[in-house]
Amino acid sequence: MTVSSTASEAPAGSARDSRVGTPVPGRAPRPGRAAGDHRPPPPRFAYDAHTWKEIAHLLANLPVAITGFVYATFTVLVGAVLSVTVVGLPTLALGLAGARLFGRGERARSRALLGVRIDEPSPLWNSHRKDGGLGRLWASLKDPVGWRTVLYCLIRLPWGLVTFIVVLVGLFTLWPVLPFVVRGLANADRAMAKGLLSPSDELERRVAELESDRGVVVDAAAADLRRIERDLHDGAQARLVALAMGLGLAKEKLLEDPDAAAAMVDEAHGEVKLALQELRDLARGIHPAVLTDRGLSAALSSVSARCTAPVRVSVDLAERPAEAIEGIAYFTVSELLQNISKHARATSAEVEVWRTEGRLLLQVTDDGQGGASLDRGTGLAGLAERLGAVDGLLVVDSPVGGPTRVTAELPWRNRVGR
After folding, report:
1. 3-class secondary-structure state, position 347
2. What is the pLDDT of residues 3-21, one digit of tens each?
3. Residue 394: closest CA among 415, 416, 379
4. Pairing relation of β-strands 393-397 and 359-366?
5. The domain 290-411 belongs to what CATH superfamily?
6. Topology (CATH) of 214-286
7. Which residues of 10-42 are buried (b: 16+ CB within 10 A; e: fewer)?
8. Which residues share a beta bridge with 411?
9. Assessment of whether the complete model's pTM goes beyond 0.90
């Protein structure tokens, strides 16, 4: 046998040179591949940490789904059966509150294993804290978060069974393609959790805000009614009672002492004028006629004339806003000017009103001593609540030493037919 001069034989198991195709000393060729086969190994999918988390989530679906299904079924059935008794509705309300807790746990599990962020819903009784037991019971019974969680629990049992079986079988038989299957199942889980466990953010937030604002409006209306009643009782009513008594005495003295009777009638005439003025002021406090007839510019000019400091009024509006918004703007400026008269020690003030897109803005500035705040009992906190009830906003900038600038923002809400 003839061999090439460049090749040399070596005993079996001895080391050969490092040329291509020679085996490494002491290492046998890989099974199933020839010693000279240098093709890359077949592709193999890597199971990363994220995939294992998804697998853990899908395997845990079944026990969690069984727990949720049993709880939801028990809550609904027991609440329905006992609804004819006194304890039925409270039992159902407690069950729905417990469903909220189950939903919180599922959001945490989805966050930890699926990486999906689902915001927590707003507290159930935030807007019913003043309603007492019945208000809280009714809030629990119509809680959309609780009912969606119950629905989530009821439909999860068949889904949890499917995911558990598919993943468990796939771990032993479908190893190369299992990550792709897992990813698809996990995405379906993500969509289900987002759809049923998310707090319908904007709608729920707006409902809670409107319920809270309704309480503010009711409280403000009740306070206004009490103020009007007090003003009538202590002011115009008392003056009219004194007027009636004075006229009665004048009637008795008309024949005996005409001069004294004339003097009493003259005094009564003065009381009538004062009573009329008080009634006008009271009516102006409810809704001034000048505002209805001539709009904000004339009404604000009128109210600014009663301020202790000179006030410059600038109203830049091409049209009038909604009547309710116009009234709120008027009373906001009126109260701010009263604060200037009582607390600011200002020598001048300015009122500016303008429109920016769909918002009505007004700003009241004075050169007084400053120090005004929303939490110092100056009435600004109540004013901010009233503005908030109509989607308004109040911002106070009042450093000690002044100047003070209070800015209010209100929705425009065009008048009907304009």
Report:
1. coil
2. 334 333 444 444 444 434 4
3. 379
4. unpaired
5. Histidine kinase-like ATPase, C-terminal domain (3.30.565.10)
6. 1.20.5
7. eeeeeeeeeeeeeeeeeeeeeeeeeeeeeeeee
8. 359
9. no
